[in-house]
Amino acid sequence: MNITAPPMEEAKSYTARMTARRRLSAHTFEITMEYPDSFRFVAGHSIRIHYQDTYRHYSMVNDPDSRQLVLCVRLVQNGLLSPVLADCNMGTSFTISGPYGYFRFNPSPRHPVFVASGTGIAPFASMAHAGVEGFTLIHGVRYGEELYYRNQIESAAKAYVPCITQPSGHDSAIRESFHGRVTDYISRYLSPASYDFYLCGRREMLRDVTHLVDDRFPGSLVYTEIFF
Amino acid sequence: MKLYTGTGDRGKTSLFSGERVKKSIDRIEAYGEVDELNSVIGAVISFLPAGSRDVKRELLLIQSHLLHVGAWLATTDGSHAQQQLKTLDPGEIVNVETAIDRMQGRVPKLSNFILPGGHPSAAMAHVARTVCRRAERRVITLIHQEKLQVGDDHPNAHIITFLNRLSDYLFILARYLNHSESIDDALWSG
Ligand SMILES: Cc1cc2nc3c(=O)[nH]c(=O)nc-3n(C[C@H](O)[C@H](O)[C@H](O)COP(=O)(O)OP(=O)(O)OC[C@H]3O[C@@H](n4cnc5c(N)ncnc54)[C@H](O)[C@@H]3O)c2cc1C
Known about the structure:
The complex is a heterodimer of chains A (228) and B (190). Chain A is an alpha/beta fold.
């Protein structure tokens, strides 16, 4: 998106306490935070976790009705905040603010195609948890173990397509998956039509898929959320 | 986070409502003009003489409304995404009118056209006024082009009125700034 639209909801600050953390893959973990009752979000929203004099954004994974914040975080080596989230003591409190963003499910007559790279699966998991169903989901990851929330999402999806770029023999996920990039899958297998595309994750993925949409899927809508 | 996405490198861009469109269409032209207007108002603010705190506050608020206006213009009418936008409160038009009347009461009456200029902030307010007029024209073109029905109950109905009033505001603001800096407006001698 090239315009900076002002947020509709006033984002406010809260204190949230980390109450659980579990490993999802070699480099990714899930954290759960408790927050005050007054905070509300919709699937697709993100929050900021404030740290030192800056902040980082995270998209919620869970159902907004479940009254928690569940986040799926990639540990960035030498990063500022993600190592803190990975190592801090249980019960640590953080200042958060939100909700932020415009990335949310817009029902339409066109078929929704969700495309995620890595942790970009987070908002789609939240949408699936919130009851969105019947979509095609294409998830690009390096290794099969990074297909986070597969079970929950697969049951809500009409089609679930894992795209693994570095399949290894030990990986149980590789059998029913596409080996290659999400763009390879889309250009080879997505039938020509107009869709509502929702793209979330790395900017290069968003750019490449958007160009594919321009070239091959005229009349489609494209909604994007860039993580980095 | 990096500013660029790379999705606009081939002459297309995305509307807030998701459509991929050519950058040359009227809709992009319209919100581009509003963006330009907003930037020029920023320049007006940076040229304001010391002690213009109230005017500055007013202009900052107008800049924030113009962001909302831009978001409306970047969104296809009737789209689902439109529900996420904040409508422009008609009360904001009244606020602009009140400000016009306030400044009007403080500047000398005009006997002829004036030549735009004077104090840097006033000269810039004139630039903003002309950009505002152009933005208004582009929004009208968009509405005609897309055959939008902007009746009184339409959320976009106030945008044109707002822009129209804003250009009057910027005119009187230019005069007010010259007056408060003891600079006489240059009258047209015909
Ligand atoms: C709207 C939005 C939502 C986001 N949601 C999530 C989320 O749900 N989960 C999440 O892990 N991150 C998310 N991010 C990214 C997150 O805000 C941080 O950038 C990330 O956690 C790294 O922060 P850091 O301080 O540890 O590293 P920094 O010192 O800030 O290092 C930044 C670098 O880390 C790398 N990086 C950042 N995020 C990722 C990632 N997710 N996967 C792989 N590499 C990455 C990039 O190379 C980036 O340049 C989101 C970003 C935005 C803008």
